[in-house]
Specification:
385 residues; 3 strands; mainly alpha
Length: 385
Protein backbone atom coordinates (compact mmCIF):
# COMPACT_ATOMS: atom_id res chain seq x y z
CA UNK A 1 0.00 0.00 0.00
CA UNK A 2 1.36 3.45 -0.89
CA UNK A 3 1.89 5.72 2.06
CA UNK A 4 1.01 9.44 1.61
CA UNK A 5 4.02 11.64 0.91
CA UNK A 6 3.32 13.73 4.00
CA UNK A 7 3.49 10.71 6.32
CA UNK A 8 6.67 9.48 4.63
CA UNK A 9 8.41 12.78 5.19
CA UNK A 10 7.56 13.01 8.83
CA UNK A 11 8.29 9.40 9.66
CA UNK A 12 11.81 10.12 8.45
CA UNK A 13 12.04 12.73 11.22
CA UNK A 14 11.55 10.10 13.85
CA UNK A 15 8.21 8.47 14.49
CA UNK A 16 4.63 7.99 13.42
CA UNK A 17 3.27 11.50 13.16
CA UNK A 18 -0.08 12.94 12.11
CA UNK A 19 -0.35 14.51 8.68
CA UNK A 20 -0.16 18.26 8.35
CA UNK A 21 -3.94 18.61 8.10
CA UNK A 22 -4.39 16.81 11.42
CA UNK A 23 -1.68 18.92 13.01
CA UNK A 24 -3.34 22.07 11.77
CA UNK A 25 -6.69 20.95 13.20
CA UNK A 26 -5.06 20.34 16.59
CA UNK A 27 -3.36 23.74 16.75
CA UNK A 28 -4.26 25.69 19.96
CA UNK A 29 -6.00 28.56 18.21
CA UNK A 30 -6.96 30.34 21.45
CA UNK A 31 -3.27 30.71 22.31
CA UNK A 32 -2.61 32.32 18.93
CA UNK A 33 -5.59 34.67 19.35
CA UNK A 34 -4.40 35.80 22.79
CA UNK A 35 -0.89 36.42 21.50
CA UNK A 36 -2.32 38.35 18.56
CA UNK A 37 -4.32 40.54 20.95
CA UNK A 38 -1.17 41.30 22.92
CA UNK A 39 0.85 42.17 19.83
CA UNK A 40 -1.85 44.42 18.33
CA UNK A 41 -2.30 46.18 21.67
CA UNK A 42 1.47 46.57 21.84
CA UNK A 43 1.47 48.38 18.49
CA UNK A 44 -1.03 50.92 19.84
CA UNK A 45 0.97 51.58 23.01
CA UNK A 46 4.25 51.72 21.07
CA UNK A 47 2.81 54.24 18.61
CA UNK A 48 2.03 56.54 21.50
CA UNK A 49 5.29 55.85 23.33
CA UNK A 50 7.44 56.93 20.37
CA UNK A 51 5.45 60.11 19.80
CA UNK A 52 3.09 59.14 17.00
CA UNK A 53 3.40 59.47 13.25
CA UNK A 54 6.81 61.12 13.09
CA UNK A 55 8.36 57.93 14.50
CA UNK A 56 6.04 55.43 12.82
CA UNK A 57 9.10 53.47 11.65
CA UNK A 58 9.35 51.99 15.15
CA UNK A 59 5.91 50.45 14.74
CA UNK A 60 6.66 49.13 11.25
CA UNK A 61 9.88 47.51 12.45
CA UNK A 62 8.05 45.94 15.37
CA UNK A 63 5.34 44.71 12.98
CA UNK A 64 7.99 43.08 10.78
CA UNK A 65 9.47 41.33 13.83
CA UNK A 66 6.03 40.17 14.90
CA UNK A 67 5.30 38.78 11.44
CA UNK A 68 8.60 36.90 11.42
CA UNK A 69 7.93 35.70 14.97
CA UNK A 70 4.51 34.36 14.05
CA UNK A 71 6.03 32.55 11.07
CA UNK A 72 8.64 31.07 13.43
CA UNK A 73 5.91 30.02 15.88
CA UNK A 74 3.90 28.24 13.19
CA UNK A 75 6.97 26.56 11.69
CA UNK A 76 8.18 25.22 15.05
CA UNK A 77 4.72 24.10 16.12
CA UNK A 78 4.00 22.17 12.92
CA UNK A 79 7.11 19.99 13.01
CA UNK A 80 5.94 16.45 12.29
CA UNK A 81 7.94 14.39 14.76
CA UNK A 82 6.85 14.42 18.36
CA UNK A 83 10.41 13.63 19.49
CA UNK A 84 12.41 16.00 17.29
CA UNK A 85 12.96 18.72 19.92
CA UNK A 86 13.78 16.21 22.65
CA UNK A 87 16.31 14.54 20.36
CA UNK A 88 18.24 17.75 19.68
CA UNK A 89 17.81 19.46 23.08
CA UNK A 90 21.40 18.84 24.22
CA UNK A 91 22.79 19.93 20.86
CA UNK A 92 20.80 23.17 21.01
CA UNK A 93 22.06 23.79 24.55
CA UNK A 94 25.67 23.08 23.54
CA UNK A 95 25.52 25.42 20.54
CA UNK A 96 23.95 28.18 22.66
CA UNK A 97 26.69 27.75 25.26
CA UNK A 98 29.38 27.98 22.57
CA UNK A 99 27.79 31.18 21.28
CA UNK A 100 27.84 32.62 24.82
CA UNK A 101 31.54 31.75 25.07
CA UNK A 102 31.99 33.48 21.71
CA UNK A 103 30.35 36.61 23.13
CA UNK A 104 32.67 36.47 26.13
CA UNK A 105 35.73 36.22 23.86
CA UNK A 106 34.86 38.54 20.98
CA UNK A 107 31.33 39.87 21.35
CA UNK A 108 30.11 43.25 20.18
CA UNK A 109 29.93 45.96 22.84
CA UNK A 110 26.85 48.15 22.99
CA UNK A 111 25.61 50.45 25.78
CA UNK A 112 28.46 49.33 28.02
CA UNK A 113 27.72 45.60 27.74
CA UNK A 114 29.12 42.78 25.63
CA UNK A 115 25.96 40.86 24.71
CA UNK A 116 25.92 40.46 20.94
CA UNK A 117 27.76 38.30 18.45
CA UNK A 118 28.14 39.31 14.81
CA UNK A 119 27.77 36.33 12.47
CA UNK A 120 27.87 37.66 8.91
CA UNK A 121 24.99 40.12 8.57
CA UNK A 122 23.30 38.69 11.68
CA UNK A 123 23.65 40.45 15.04
CA UNK A 124 22.78 37.65 17.47
CA UNK A 125 22.12 37.80 21.23
CA UNK A 126 22.93 34.24 22.41
CA UNK A 127 21.54 34.81 25.91
CA UNK A 128 18.05 34.89 24.37
CA UNK A 129 18.59 31.51 22.68
CA UNK A 130 19.90 30.09 25.94
CA UNK A 131 16.59 30.85 27.69
CA UNK A 132 14.85 28.27 25.49
CA UNK A 133 17.84 25.93 25.17
CA UNK A 134 18.22 25.58 28.94
CA UNK A 135 14.56 24.64 29.38
CA UNK A 136 14.74 21.97 26.67
CA UNK A 137 18.02 20.54 27.99
CA UNK A 138 16.73 20.31 31.57
CA UNK A 139 13.47 18.77 30.36
CA UNK A 140 15.46 16.17 28.38
CA UNK A 141 17.66 15.41 31.41
CA UNK A 142 14.73 14.79 33.75
CA UNK A 143 12.76 12.94 31.07
CA UNK A 144 15.60 10.46 30.70
CA UNK A 145 15.98 10.11 34.48
CA UNK A 146 12.39 9.98 35.66
CA UNK A 147 12.26 8.82 39.29
CA UNK A 148 9.12 8.14 41.31
CA UNK A 149 10.81 8.76 44.67
CA UNK A 150 11.67 12.37 43.92
CA UNK A 151 14.93 14.14 43.12
CA UNK A 152 17.89 13.64 45.44
CA UNK A 153 20.84 15.94 46.08
CA UNK A 154 23.00 13.80 43.79
CA UNK A 155 20.49 14.25 40.96
CA UNK A 156 20.94 18.03 41.15
CA UNK A 157 24.64 18.26 40.30
CA UNK A 158 24.33 18.17 36.50
CA UNK A 159 21.15 20.34 36.29
CA UNK A 160 22.67 23.00 38.54
CA UNK A 161 25.85 22.91 36.46
CA UNK A 162 23.74 23.33 33.30
CA UNK A 163 22.18 26.43 34.89
CA UNK A 164 25.42 27.81 36.36
CA UNK A 165 27.57 27.75 33.20
CA UNK A 166 25.42 30.09 31.06
CA UNK A 167 24.43 32.18 34.08
CA UNK A 168 28.07 32.98 34.90
CA UNK A 169 28.80 33.87 31.26
CA UNK A 170 25.76 36.17 31.13
CA UNK A 171 26.64 37.83 34.45
CA UNK A 172 30.05 38.69 32.98
CA UNK A 173 28.50 40.49 29.98
CA UNK A 174 27.11 42.09 32.27
CA UNK A 175 23.38 41.28 32.16
CA UNK A 176 22.01 40.87 35.67
CA UNK A 177 18.37 40.67 34.62
CA UNK A 178 18.80 37.81 32.14
CA UNK A 179 21.07 35.86 34.51
CA UNK A 180 18.48 36.06 37.30
CA UNK A 181 15.71 35.11 34.86
CA UNK A 182 17.70 32.13 33.57
CA UNK A 183 18.33 30.85 37.10
CA UNK A 184 14.67 31.24 38.07
CA UNK A 185 13.43 29.42 34.96
CA UNK A 186 15.92 26.60 35.52
CA UNK A 187 14.76 26.18 39.11
CA UNK A 188 11.13 26.13 37.94
CA UNK A 189 11.89 23.12 35.71
CA UNK A 190 13.72 21.35 38.55
CA UNK A 191 10.81 21.93 40.96
CA UNK A 192 8.32 20.69 38.35
CA UNK A 193 10.46 17.59 37.83
CA UNK A 194 9.80 16.52 41.41
CA UNK A 195 12.24 18.33 43.68
CA UNK A 196 11.36 17.71 47.33
CA UNK A 197 10.51 20.83 49.31
CA UNK A 198 13.18 20.22 51.94
CA UNK A 199 15.84 20.10 49.21
CA UNK A 200 14.31 23.15 47.54
CA UNK A 201 14.53 25.09 50.81
CA UNK A 202 18.14 23.93 51.22
CA UNK A 203 19.00 25.18 47.71
CA UNK A 204 17.32 28.53 48.37
CA UNK A 205 19.21 28.81 51.67
CA UNK A 206 22.47 28.08 49.86
CA UNK A 207 21.69 30.74 47.27
CA UNK A 208 20.89 33.19 50.07
CA UNK A 209 24.20 32.41 51.75
CA UNK A 210 26.02 33.11 48.48
CA UNK A 211 24.45 36.56 48.06
CA UNK A 212 27.45 38.42 49.57
CA UNK A 213 29.67 36.85 46.91
CA UNK A 214 27.15 37.80 44.23
CA UNK A 215 27.02 41.34 45.59
CA UNK A 216 30.79 41.64 45.25
CA UNK A 217 30.62 40.38 41.65
CA UNK A 218 28.17 43.13 40.67
CA UNK A 219 29.14 46.35 38.96
CA UNK A 220 28.64 49.62 40.83
CA UNK A 221 25.66 50.63 38.70
CA UNK A 222 23.96 47.28 39.45
CA UNK A 223 24.41 47.80 43.19
CA UNK A 224 22.96 51.30 42.87
CA UNK A 225 19.88 49.90 41.11
CA UNK A 226 19.20 47.54 43.99
CA UNK A 227 19.80 50.19 46.67
CA UNK A 228 17.61 52.64 44.74
CA UNK A 229 14.70 50.22 45.09
CA UNK A 230 14.46 51.04 48.80
CA UNK A 231 14.96 54.81 48.58
CA UNK A 232 14.77 56.26 45.04
CA UNK A 233 14.25 59.74 46.50
CA UNK A 234 17.89 59.84 47.67
CA UNK A 235 19.01 60.27 44.05
CA UNK A 236 16.00 61.71 42.21
CA UNK A 237 18.02 62.96 39.23
CA UNK A 238 20.32 59.92 38.99
CA UNK A 239 19.70 56.28 39.86
CA UNK A 240 16.20 56.97 41.21
CA UNK A 241 14.98 59.01 38.23
CA UNK A 242 13.55 56.12 36.19
CA UNK A 243 11.45 54.63 38.95
CA UNK A 244 10.22 58.01 40.27
CA UNK A 245 8.98 59.06 36.83
CA UNK A 246 7.45 55.62 36.28
CA UNK A 247 5.48 55.82 39.52
CA UNK A 248 4.26 59.31 38.63
CA UNK A 249 3.08 58.10 35.23
CA UNK A 250 1.27 55.04 36.60
CA UNK A 251 -0.31 56.93 39.50
CA UNK A 252 -1.49 59.82 37.35
CA UNK A 253 -3.39 57.45 35.06
CA UNK A 254 -6.05 56.85 37.68
CA UNK A 255 -8.89 54.45 36.91
CA UNK A 256 -9.50 55.12 33.22
CA UNK A 257 -6.30 56.93 32.19
CA UNK A 258 -5.64 60.24 30.48
CA UNK A 259 -6.45 58.99 27.01
CA UNK A 260 -4.52 57.86 23.95
CA UNK A 261 -1.36 59.97 23.43
CA UNK A 262 -2.44 62.25 26.27
CA UNK A 263 0.04 61.11 28.94
CA UNK A 264 2.19 63.98 30.14
CA UNK A 265 5.08 61.85 31.44
CA UNK A 266 5.51 60.00 28.15
CA UNK A 267 4.57 62.69 25.63
CA UNK A 268 6.74 65.34 27.33
CA UNK A 269 9.72 62.96 27.56
CA UNK A 270 9.89 62.79 31.35
CA UNK A 271 9.70 58.99 31.27
CA UNK A 272 12.94 57.32 30.09
CA UNK A 273 13.04 54.09 28.04
CA UNK A 274 9.31 54.50 27.54
CA UNK A 275 9.17 52.35 24.38
CA UNK A 276 11.18 49.46 25.87
CA UNK A 277 11.51 48.61 29.57
CA UNK A 278 8.99 51.19 30.83
CA UNK A 279 6.27 50.80 28.22
CA UNK A 280 3.82 49.54 30.86
CA UNK A 281 4.07 52.98 32.50
CA UNK A 282 2.91 54.54 29.22
CA UNK A 283 -0.02 52.13 29.04
CA UNK A 284 -1.03 52.73 32.67
CA UNK A 285 -0.86 56.53 32.29
CA UNK A 286 -2.96 56.61 29.13
CA UNK A 287 -5.35 53.71 29.79
CA UNK A 288 -5.38 53.74 33.59
CA UNK A 289 -6.03 50.92 36.01
CA UNK A 290 -8.58 49.38 33.64
CA UNK A 291 -6.07 49.15 30.78
CA UNK A 292 -3.41 47.66 33.04
CA UNK A 293 -5.89 45.15 34.45
CA UNK A 294 -6.99 44.04 30.97
CA UNK A 295 -3.36 43.49 30.01
CA UNK A 296 -2.75 41.48 33.17
CA UNK A 297 -5.86 39.37 32.53
CA UNK A 298 -4.63 38.63 29.00
CA UNK A 299 -1.27 37.51 30.38
CA UNK A 300 -2.99 35.30 32.96
CA UNK A 301 -5.17 33.72 30.26
CA UNK A 302 -2.08 32.86 28.20
CA UNK A 303 -0.35 31.36 31.24
CA UNK A 304 -3.45 29.35 32.15
CA UNK A 305 -3.79 28.09 28.59
CA UNK A 306 -0.17 26.94 28.47
CA UNK A 307 -0.50 25.17 31.84
CA UNK A 308 -3.55 23.31 30.50
CA UNK A 309 -1.38 22.23 27.57
CA UNK A 310 1.28 21.04 30.04
CA UNK A 311 -1.30 18.90 31.83
CA UNK A 312 -2.16 17.09 28.58
CA UNK A 313 1.43 16.53 27.38
CA UNK A 314 2.08 13.05 26.03
CA UNK A 315 5.39 12.62 27.87
CA UNK A 316 7.52 14.03 30.68
CA UNK A 317 9.69 16.05 28.28
CA UNK A 318 6.64 17.85 26.92
CA UNK A 319 5.28 18.60 30.37
CA UNK A 320 8.57 19.96 31.73
CA UNK A 321 9.25 21.94 28.54
CA UNK A 322 5.89 23.70 28.71
CA UNK A 323 6.24 24.41 32.44
CA UNK A 324 9.71 25.90 31.90
CA UNK A 325 8.69 27.97 28.87
CA UNK A 326 5.59 29.18 30.70
CA UNK A 327 7.81 30.19 33.63
CA UNK A 328 10.02 32.11 31.18
CA UNK A 329 7.00 34.06 29.94
CA UNK A 330 5.46 34.56 33.40
CA UNK A 331 8.70 35.66 35.09
CA UNK A 332 9.27 38.33 32.43
CA UNK A 333 5.79 39.71 33.05
CA UNK A 334 6.31 39.60 36.82
CA UNK A 335 9.77 41.20 36.77
CA UNK A 336 8.89 43.97 34.31
CA UNK A 337 5.69 44.98 36.10
CA UNK A 338 7.36 44.71 39.50
CA UNK A 339 10.21 46.83 38.18
CA UNK A 340 8.12 49.72 36.83
CA UNK A 341 5.95 49.99 39.98
CA UNK A 342 8.96 49.97 42.31
CA UNK A 343 8.67 46.49 43.84
CA UNK A 344 11.76 45.08 42.09
CA UNK A 345 15.09 46.59 40.97
CA UNK A 346 15.39 47.96 37.44
CA UNK A 347 17.13 45.11 35.62
CA UNK A 348 16.19 45.67 31.98
CA UNK A 349 13.61 42.92 31.37
CA UNK A 350 11.15 43.85 28.56
CA UNK A 351 7.39 43.41 28.81
CA UNK A 352 6.49 40.35 26.69
CA UNK A 353 5.03 41.14 23.24
CA UNK A 354 4.60 44.82 24.19
CA UNK A 355 8.09 46.33 24.59
CA UNK A 356 9.93 47.44 21.46
CA UNK A 357 12.69 45.04 20.42
CA UNK A 358 13.21 41.91 18.42
CA UNK A 359 15.30 39.53 20.53
CA UNK A 360 12.79 39.04 23.34
CA UNK A 361 9.80 38.79 21.02
CA UNK A 362 11.43 36.18 18.78
CA UNK A 363 12.55 34.14 21.80
CA UNK A 364 9.04 34.12 23.24
CA UNK A 365 7.53 33.28 19.84
CA UNK A 366 9.92 30.35 19.65
CA UNK A 367 8.80 29.31 23.13
CA UNK A 368 5.13 29.56 22.18
CA UNK A 369 5.79 27.53 19.05
CA UNK A 370 7.29 24.75 21.19
CA UNK A 371 4.29 24.91 23.52
CA UNK A 372 1.91 24.68 20.57
CA UNK A 373 3.92 21.69 19.28
CA UNK A 374 3.34 19.89 22.58
CA UNK A 375 -0.36 20.71 22.34
CA UNK A 376 -0.60 19.31 18.81
CA UNK A 377 0.98 16.04 19.94
CA UNK A 378 -0.81 15.94 23.29
CA UNK A 379 -2.99 13.17 24.72
CA UNK A 380 -6.13 15.19 23.87
CA UNK A 381 -5.76 15.35 20.11
CA UNK A 382 -9.34 16.41 19.51
CA UNK A 383 -8.96 19.75 21.26
CA UNK A 384 -8.59 22.79 19.03
CA UNK A 385 -8.94 25.52 21.64
Amino acid sequence: MNMPTDDKNFRLLGGNSPGWRDRLSRFPTSLLILLGMLILGGFVVLYSAVGGGENIDYVWRQAARAAFGLTLLLTISMAGSEKIYRRYAYLFYGLSLLLLIGVFLSGTIGMGARRWLEIGVLNLQPSELMKVALVLALARYFHDRSVSSGISIADLFIPLLMIALPTILIVKQPDLGTSILLSAVGMAVIVAAGLEWKIFIAVITLLGASMPMGWNMMHDYQRRRILTLFSPEKDPLGAGYHIIQSKIAIGSGGIFGKGFMAGSQSQLNFLPERHTDFIFSVLAEEWGFVGGLLLLITYCMIILRTLIIASTASDRFGLLSVVGLTALFAFQVLVNMGMVIGLLPVVGIPLPMISYGGSSMLTLMMAMGLIAHVSIHSKQHGRTI
